[in-house]
Design goal:
By secondary structure, the protein is an alpha+beta fold. The protein folds into four domains: 158 residues, Molybdenum Cofactor Biosythetic Enzyme, Chain A (3-Layer(aba) Sandwich); 45 residues, Molybdopterin biosynthesis moea protein, domain 2 (Alpha-Beta Complex); 90 residues, Molybdopterin biosynthesis moea protein, domain 3 (Molybdopterin biosynthesis moeA protein, domain 3); 68 residues, Beta Barrel (Beta-clip), CATH 2.40.340.10. 18% of the residues lie in helices and 29% in strands. The protein contains seven helices and 28 strands. The protein has a six-stranded mixed beta sheet, with no helix packed on it. β8 and β9 form a beta hairpin. The longest helix is centred in the last third of the chain and has 20 residues. The structure holds adenosine monophosphate (AMP) and magnesium ion (MG). Magnesium ion binds next to loops.
Length: 403
C-alpha cells in the first residue's frame, strides 16, 4: 500500500481544476440540424432582412390608413375591394385611395397600403363589391415591416452564444444552412482493471461488467463533449501506458479505476511517468481516491473505480471542467428543497454526496455503498453535506441537486 500523500478539500480540488486554462479552439461548420447545444465560434451578421418584406400580421384588409380616419361600427367607412393576396403571392396592383385588398396573415402588404384592418373589424357592405370598415387604424398597424424581426446588417448572434432552439431558429430565419461552431471536445473514456469486461461478454469467475465507461460517456455527451470509448486497460503499467498514449490524442482523458493506494493501483505511476499530478485524494465521500494531472496541456482525470464514486465525481468535478473546455456556460442543475425523511450521519472532515429519492415531497436516503450503482440508479439526486456537518436530522430541509 502507498497511502495518499496529500488529501485536499473539495474546494481546493475545484480551485485547482478552475486554475487550469482550457477552452477548445478548433472550429468547424455544422449543418443546422446538428447545431442545437453547440457553441457559436463567430458573430452572425444578418445578410438580409427578416421578414424580407412588409407583411400582414392579421387576416383582414390592407388599406391606406388615412382612409379609415373616423371609422367606427356606428359610422363605417366603405372601401372598394380591388383584390386578394394570399401568402406566397405578390399583388401586382397598387391599393389606391378608397380601396382595400383582402389579405392573409403572412402575405406581403401591397404597395400603396399602409395598414391592415382585422377581419373582425369589418363587415360586408350594403354596396356590392365594397367592405365596411368599422375601425380606424394607424399607419403600420397589424403590419410587420421588412427587417422588423432581424434587420439586415445587425449582429443577430455572438461568438460564444450557446445554440438554444430559438437561436437555431434565428439562423434558419436568415436562410443559413450551417454555422461555424467550436468542435466538441473529445474525451477519452478509459476503464481499467483486470476484472472489468465489457457488457455483453459472459463473466468468468472474478469478473464484473464495465459500468464506468457508460456512465462517464453519458455525462460527457450531456455536457458538450464527444465521448471516445476505449477498451478496458489491464492493471499493468504497460497496459495503462499504452492506453494513455492513444488517449492523449483526445482533449481530455478520463480513466477510472486504479487511482487508489493498492499495489495494483498504477494509474498514478502511469501519470507521473508522463506528466504531473495536480492532486491525488479529495476529502469527499464517495470519491476520495480521485486523481487529476496534466500531461503536457492535456488534462487527465483518474476517477475511482467504484461506480458511484466515479459517477459522483463526474457530476461534481468533470462536468464543470468539461463545460469550460467546451466553452459552455456553467451548469445550473435543478435543485429542490425537501425535508429529509430520515436522520443521516456524515463523517466530519469530508464533504459527502448523499443520494436521495424524492418520495411524496420528502427526501428518502438512497445511498447504499460506493460500489453500488443503485446508490444512484435508485435516486433522484444528491445532497451535498459540508465537511463540517456530522448529522442531518429527520425533517430538516435539504437541497437536493437533481441528476
Ligand atoms: P479500483 O478503483 O480500481 O480500486 O476499483 C474499486 C472497485 O470498483 C472494485 O470493486 C472494482 O472492481 C470496481 N470497478 C473498477 N472499475 C470498474 C468499472 N469500470 N465498472 C464497474 N466497477 C468497476
Ligand atoms: Mg482496479
Amino acid at each position: 500500500m502507498r497511502p495518499f500523500t496529500e488529501t485536499i478539500s473539495l474546494a481546493e480540488a475545484r480551485a485547482r481544476l478552475d486554475a487550469v486554462p482550457v477552452g477548445i479552439t478548433r472550429v468547424a461548420s455544422a449543418p443546422l440540424a446538428m447545431l442545437p447545444g453547440r457553441v457559436l465560434a463567430e458573430d452572425v451578421v444578418a445578410a438580409s432582412n427578416v421578414p424580407p418584406f412588409a407583411r400582414a400580421m392579421m387576416d383582414g384588409y390592407a388599406v391606406r390608413a388615412d382612409d379609415t380616419t373616423g371609422a367606427s361600427a356606428g359610422t363605417p367607412r366603405d372601401l372598394v375591394l380591388v383584390g386578394r393576396v394570399f401568402t406566397g403571392e405578390v399583388l401586382a396592383r397598387e391599393v389606391g385611395s378608397g380601396e382595400c385588398v383582402e389579405i392573409a396573415t403572412g402575405a406581403p402588404l401591397p404597395s400603396g397600403a399602409s395598414a391592415v384592418v382585422m377581419v373582425e373589424d369589418t363587415a360586408p357592405s350594403a354596396t356590392p363589391g365594397q367592405v365596411a370598415i368599422h375601425t380606424a387604424v394607424a399607419g403600420g398597424q397589424h403590419v410587420a415591416r421588412a427587417g422588423a424581426d432581424i434587420a439586415a446588417g445587425s449582429v443577430v448572434l455572438r461568438a460564444g452564444d450557446v445554440l438554444l432552439p430559438a437561436r437555431v431558429g434565428a439562423l434558419a430565419a436568415l436562410g443559413l444552412g450551417e454555422a461555424r461552431v467550436f468542435e466538441r471536445p473529445r474525451v477519452a473514456v478509459v476503464s481499467t482493471g483486470n476484472e472489468v469486461v465489457a457488457p455483453g461478454a459472459t463473466l468468468a469467475p472474478g469478473q464484473i461488467h464495465d459500468v464506468n465507461r457508460f456512465t462517464v460517456s453519458a455525462i460527457v455527451e450531456a455536457h458538450g463533449g464527444e465521448a471516445v470509448p476505449f477498451d478496458v486497460a489491464g492493471d499493468t503499467l504497460e497496459a495503462l501506458d499504452a492506453a494513455m498514449t492513444s488517449a492523449l490524442a483526445c482533449d481530455v482523458v478520463v480513466f477510472s479505476g486504479g487511482s487508489s493506494v493498492g499495489d495494483r493501483d498504477l494509474l498514478l505511476d502511469a501519470l507521473r511517468a508522463r506528466g504531473r499530478v495536480v492532486f491525488h485524494g479529495i476529502a469527499t465521500r464517495p470519491g476520495k481516491p480521485t486523481a487529476f494531472g496534466l500531461v503536457g496541456d492535456t488534462p487527465v482525470f483518474g476517477m475511482p473505480g467504484n461506480p458511484t464514486s466515479c459517477l459522483t465525481n463526474a457530476y461534481v468535478l468533470l462536468v464543470p471542467f468539461l463545460r469550460r473546455v467546451a466553452r459552455l456556460p456553467a451548469h445550473s442543475p435543478r435543485v429542490v428543497s425537501a425535508p429529509l425523511a430520515r436522520r443521516v450521519t456524515s463523517g466530519v472532515g469530508r464533504t459527502q454526496f448523499y443520494t436521495v429519492r424524492l418520495v411524496g415531497g420528502r427526501a428518502e436516503p438512497a445511498f447504499k455503498a460506493s460500489g453500488d450503482i443503485t446508490s444512484m440508479a435508485h435516486a433522484d439526486g444528491f445532497v451535498e453535506i459540508p465537511a463540517e456537518v456530522g448529522v442531518l436530522e429527520a425533517g430538516e430541509d435539504v437541497d437536493v441537486v437533481l441528476f
